[in-house]
Design brief:
Layout (H helix, E strand, L loop, with lengths): L14 E2 L3 E2 L1 H7 L33 H4 L22 H4 L3 H4 L7 H5 L32 H4 L7 H5 L32 H4 L7 H5 L34 H4 L19 H10 L27
Antiparallel strand pairs: 1-2
């Protein structure tokens, strides 16, 4: 190894005959408090803020727990994975005392008050398992302070002011449970502002001006509650477009039968008054099946 090249063939400087190297020989040259700060000659090394000065927290006789024998004059330096168990108990609970320079400066790590080991393993920083309960009371309700980059750009997420946690879990974004009551009074009645991509391309949905909630629930699209036969049976003679009968956009409670060539206002008045019927404005009350004679009537099966 480069650092020990000057020793040349002076093997006994580090090795005990038939016993190998021990930590005692290591610390005779490498003072524990100087490692990564000064060389063995006492000269200051260039400061490297990426290095962790962990040697100050380990037992002085634990060198060979991490550093192995070079195993040959041409062999590269060999080291084992660092065992955090070798640290003093106090330091094992205070990761930041060694890893201060490696702490990210994002909002999440600034707000988190717990020890690094509560989220990270000792071998690699990632993957990590973050426990949201470790956040402070105020920051725990302000998901967007950490997740601004994760916020979708669609209309729904741009208009909503509630906390992410009201719809999403803390382990993954989907599946989510959206509570429509969190929408503002105006946007809550305009389903299409968020669900435009969900709107079917059939004639009914293209021509309908009503709010989705008239037929659909907020949990699932199907089953829907719309059944036209409940109000008027669309038989072979009445396969008309919605706007033929429902002339006022969005108001499907209001209808007219006068837009068909057969049902002129004058003819309807004349025929009904001839029969002594003067309350003929509500056609469906008598003609729910579209028959001339009346058929099913409202309130009767």
């Amino acid at each position: 190894m480069t650092g020990h090249r000057s020793l040349g063939k002076k093997c006994l400087s580090c090795h005990t005959p038939f016993a190998g190297a021990t930590s005692v020989q290591c610390i005779s040259c490498h003072k524990q408090s100087d490692i990564s700060v000064r060389n063995v000659a006492g000269r200051l090394l260039l400061k490297d803020t990426t290095k962790v000065l962990l040697h100050r927290g380990v037992d002085a006789n634990s060198c060979i727990d991490c550093h192995t024998d070079h195993k040959g004059s041409d062999a590269k330096k060999t080291s084992k994975h660092f065992k955090h168990e070798a640290l003093q108990l106090l330091l094992q609970k205070e990761c930041i005392s060694c890893h201060k320079n490696q702490k990210p400066q994002d909002a999440m790590h600034r707000f988190a008050k717990g020890n690094c080991s509560e989220c990270h393993g000792t071998k690699n920083w990632k993957p990590a398992t973050f426990n949201h309960s470790k956040l402070t009371a105020s920051s725990g309700k302000q998901c967007i302070t950490c997740h601004k980059a994760d916020q979708p750009k669609d209309t729904l997420h741009q208009n909503i002011t509630a906390s992410c946690a009201e719809c999403h879990g803390t382990k993954k974004w989907k599946p989510a449970t959206f509570n429509h009551s969190k929408l503002t009074a105006s946007s809550g009645k305009q389903c299409i502002t968020c669900h435009k991509a969900d709107q079917p391309k059939d004639t009914l949905h293209r021509t309908s001006q009503a709010n989705c909630a008239v037929c659909h629930k907020t949990t699932v699209w199907k089953p829907a509650t719309f059944d036209h036969n409940r109000y008027f049976r669309l038989d072979g003679d009445h396969r008309a477009s919605c706007v033929t009968c429902h002339t006022e956009p969005g108001n499907y409670k209001k209808y007219t039968c006068y837009n068909c060539h057969e049902h002129s206002a004058a003819r309807i008045i004349r025929k009904h008054e001839k029969e002594g019927i003067f309350n003929y404005q509500n056609c469906m009350k008598c003609h729910r099946d579209g028959s001339k004679e009346g058929g099913e009537r409202e309130g009767h099966d």
